[in-house]
Amino acid sequence: MKCKAEEAAYVDERGKRAHCDSCKRPGATRHIRKKRKAATANIDTAGLCDSGKKRTLTSDGPPISLASLGTSPFIAATLDADWLERQLPTRELLTDAPRGTWTAATTTELDLTTHTPREKVAISIGEQLVGDYAAMAPVMRAVAHEMGVNQTACIGANRPGNRTPRHQHAPMGVLNLLGGGKGAAKRWRLWAPGSESGAESLCFEQRAGDVLWIPPGWQHEVMTTGGVVVELDGGGEEIVTPHWVTWCLPKRLAQRSLSALLAGVTREDQVSGSRTAAQKRKLYEVLEAYAEDGAAACY
Questions:
Q1: Residues 243, 13: Cα–Cα separation, whole Å
Q2: What is the mean pLDDT of residues 29-46?
Q3: Cα gap 153→174, rounded to integer Å
Q4: How many whole angstroms separate alpha carbon 76 and alpha carbon 87?
Q5: Fold of 65-136+149-250
Q6: Which is nearest to 74 in space by CA: 219, 176, 145, 217?
Q7: 3-class SS of residue 280
Q8: Average pLDDT of the chain?
Q9: In 165-250, which ranges are continuous DSSP H helix?
Q10: Using CA atoms, how far apart are residues 154 and 239, in angstroms rounded to an integer?
Q11: Cα 227 to the chain's mean position, in Å?
Q12: How far is 213 from 76, CA to CA, in rounded Å?
């Protein structure tokens, strides 16, 4: 008998099915630690663009192209498990964090680099991983400014057991790289735009080195399920799971994202709060100009 969320079943590299988090069957405890993919039946996969091929970081250039990012989530690239750690060691990330940001009581801090000397490291990661990132970044900053959210890529950390409640990021998409080395893990549940209720549309088990693409408007809930031990300066240890996140929106998806906002399918206020009429107007203007530029490039 198939569970209600069969589309979310994990499949290992040999093609054998593992459990789906939603079915909750007795004994369904096996996790896939290597290559994973999730079926996308009953989901609009138009523009998925070669999503079945995982890319790695090589001397040939960035592993992720904006053209490869479509309207459904997928693992856009798989890097070495220690790649993020080499860019910014977790010990340094936590030690250099603004005073009081990361404490013994803190279970998550999604952004530990904005307005710090480490902000440049977060931005440089985007330039290494994503083709045309430098050209896209100013538009993302302009949109983020009108939304009142962080305007650049950032690096943060969670503790195992932390659960980030269901939320979404329209009108921009998000690339999320998990760091921490072997042992770090997150479990993602995702709902397609407009599916406010019911079972999730997709599930992903993310391991260190996986770069997950979340298109605009896809709601998601995240559970940090594994971390690594980090020795801090001055003594003491932490078990943490670092991550890198950046806003991302290919030009060819900009009009689709703007239309979803205007139709009320998605909203620009993310989890809570609202923007003023002037801020929304400016937001729409930035997206419309970006979309028109993308449409012109197609001719």
A1: 25
A2: 30
A3: 10
A4: 19
A5: Jelly Rolls (2.60.120)
A6: 176
A7: helix
A8: 77
A9: none
A10: 20
A11: 18
A12: 6
How many residues does this entry show for the chain? 299
**Residue with token string 């530029």:** 293
Amino acid identity of residue 129, one-letter, is L
Burial class (CB within 10 angstroms; exposed 0-12, middle 13-18, buried 19+) of 275: middle
If one counts every other C-beta atom within 10 angstroms of the C-beta of residue 3, the result is 17
- What are the pLDDT digits (tens) for 44-59? 333 333 334 455 555 5
Whether residue 186 has pLDDT greater than 90: yes
Return d(Cα 102, Cα 157) in angstroms, integer. Answer: 9
* In the predicted structure, residue 3 carries a pLDDT above the cut 50: no
C-alpha radius of gyration, the chain, whole number: 19
Residues forming beta bridges with residue 109, ordered by sequence position: 157
**Which whole number is the average pLDDT over 166-182?**
91
Contact 11, 18 (CB under 8 A): yes
Hey, what are 214's tokens?
């979340």
C-alpha–C-alpha distance, residues 121 and 242, integer Å: 14
Q: How confident is the model at residue 269 (pLDDT cuts 50, 70, 90)?
A: low
Query: What is the per-residue pLDDT across 104-115, written as a single tens digit (0 to 9) for each?
Result: 777 888 899 999
Helix 133-147 and helix 277-297, axial crossing angle in degrees, nearest 10: 160
- Compute φ and ψ for 122, nearest 5 degrees: -60, -40
